[in-house]
Amino acid sequence: MQYFGRLNSTIMNTFIKPLLRKELPNLTIFYSFADSAFARICLASTKQGLCSVSLVMDSDAKAVEKIQKTFPGTILEATKRPEHALFLKALAKEDVDLTFNLLGTPFQLDVWNALLKVPFGITTTYGALAAEIGRPKAFRAVGSAVGDNPIFFAVPCHRVLPASGGVGNYFWGPEIKKTLLDWEKAI
Question: Using one digit for the tens of pLDDT, what is the confidence trace for 99-149?
Fold first, then answer.
């Protein structure tokens, strides 16, 4: 199997395998739900790895609708997969190996792979992340790609802060971002 990237970090060895849009028709996506210290989580994966991990902000049904909208033409199956359990172990600060099967542009995949290089408990800026991928002037585009990250916590977009200070924006809200950052520093 070919991987987009590999990382050794405090929590996990992580691999990204790109998911191509042409692979979506008739692809099965397995999903399950779990409760965490942060919120209820919806985990979704293909046989190649996790493709989405999100916080359930409304209802389980809306989370499933979001998966179907994100991955049109796929078959959804409510099944707990081993990678779902591994992700939950990572949230418990256990060392695990995870594989992601992510749907994104080459630029987004570059940004998400660079996010994986940000060590547990450490933060970076959008400009530094842009420089990491060899596109130092693309910090705004990097910010958009960071915001489009489909994997809560394990692709650590919460570790990116604005150079001007503060915690900045976060899809799940600044309170959860600050909670994640404090939680990581508490090791």
Answer: 999 999 999 999 999 999 998 889 999 999 999 999 999 999 999 999 999
The CATH number corresponding to 5-101 among 3.40.190.10, 3.30.160.70, 3.40.50.10490, 2.160.10.10 equals 3.30.160.70
What is the rounded CA–CA span in Å between residue 79 and residue 180? 27
Choose the catalytic residue: 11, 12, 16, 157: 157
42 is catalytic: no
Neighbouring C-beta atoms of residue 89, cutoff 10 Å: 14
pTM of the model: 0.89
